[in-house]
Amino acid sequence: MSPTPGIAASAQGGEHEQMAADMHGYLLATRLQYFLTVTRHGSIRSAAAALGVAPSSISRVIAQFEAELGASLFERIARRLVLTAAGKVLRDHAHAGALELERAQALIRDMQGLRHGSITIGVVESVARGMLPALLSQFWASAPDVNVDIKVLGSEQILAAIQDGACDLGVAFDAPHDPARLDRLDVVSLPIGVIMSPRHHLARRKRLRMADLAAERILGPDTGLTINNLLHAGQEAEPVASPRMATNSIALMADLAARGAGIAFQTRIGVEHELREKTLVFVPFHASGIKPRALGVYVRTGLLLPAAPLLLSNLISDAFRRLAPLP
Q1: DSSP states along 148-179
Q2: Within a domain: residue 142?
Q3: Which one-letter DSSP state was computed for residue 260?
C-alpha cells in the first residue's frame, strides 16, 4: 500500500526540519570549538595548529560568527587576539551548552542594538570617588542608552542589597566568601597604607609601623567603614594614639590629610586623584594583625547576569587587573 500523500509530505518535512536542526547544532558546535580554541591560544595560527585545520578555515568561521552576531569577538593587542566585551559574554556562556549559547547570542545582539534597560549597582565610597567614573565612561561608550542607578553604601549594606535583589551587582570590601548566598566574580588584594600631606615629616618614609605613629594625629574611620575593624585588630596588638576624629567619609579624611590636619589609613582606591595631583602621598603600612583588604565584585548566587550588568562587571574585573602591585 502506498503511503498517503499528506502523511508522506509531513514525514519528509519532519526529516528536513531534523536535518536543519542537526546542521544548526553542528555549526554552533564548530563555531564554539574554534572560538574557545582561539580564546585559549590567543592567535588563529596557534589555534589552527591545535585543531589540525587551516588557519583560513578558523578565520572564515569566526568572521561568519561575528557577522551573524553583529559584533566583533576579538581585538588585536600586541600581536595577540584579546576578547572584546561581546567575546567575554560569549565565553562566559559557552560552557553551558547549546541553549546557553543561544542566550548568549541574544544578549550580544541586545548589546549591539538599542542598549536599553537599567542596572543598579552598589559600591563603597572609595570606588565611587576612585575608579567608577572612568569605568562608567567605558561602559556608556558600549551601552549608551542603559541607565545606571548607583548606590553608595557600606560593604555590609551592599551585600544585603544584592541578596535582597535591590542591587544587580556590588563592589565591596572584605566580604566573607559565602557561596550559598553570594557569587564572587572577581577580587583584588589591596594593602593598607597611610595617607598624608607631602609636607608631613613621615612622607618620605618607605614604610611605616604602629610605633612610628604613636605621636601622630589620626584621622580615623568610624564603625561604618569596614577598615575600622582591621585597624582595631592591629591596635590591640600595638596600641596607637587615639584618633582626633572619627568619620565614615573617605573624602573628608583625604581632604583633612591633604591640609596637614593629620594622617589617615586607606588603600590607594578612593584617593587616586589626590595621589596623581601629589596633594597626598601614600606610605605602605605594616603591623601585626592587619592584612590587605579584599575588594570584590559580587552578585546573588545563581544569578545569570544580563548583557549590560555582565559588561560592567567585566570592566570592573579589567580595572582590578590593572591595579599595580604595591610594595
Answers
A1: EEEEE--HHHHHHHHHHTS-SEEEEES----T
A2: yes
A3: T
CA distance 214 to 17: 79
- Full-prediction pTM beyond 0.70? no
Contact 273, 282 (CB under 8 A): no
* Beta-bridge partners for 296: 172, 187
In a domain, 3, yes or no: no
Q: In what helix (H) or strand (E) does residue 186 lie, and over which residues does it extend?
A: strand 182-190
- pLDDT for 138-149, tens place per residue? 999 888 888 899
Here the CATH number for the domain that contains residue 154 is: 3.40.190.10
Domain count, the chain: 3
CATH of the domain at 16: 1.10.10.10
Confidence (pLDDT) at 105 = 64
Residues 245 and 309 occupy one common structural domain: no
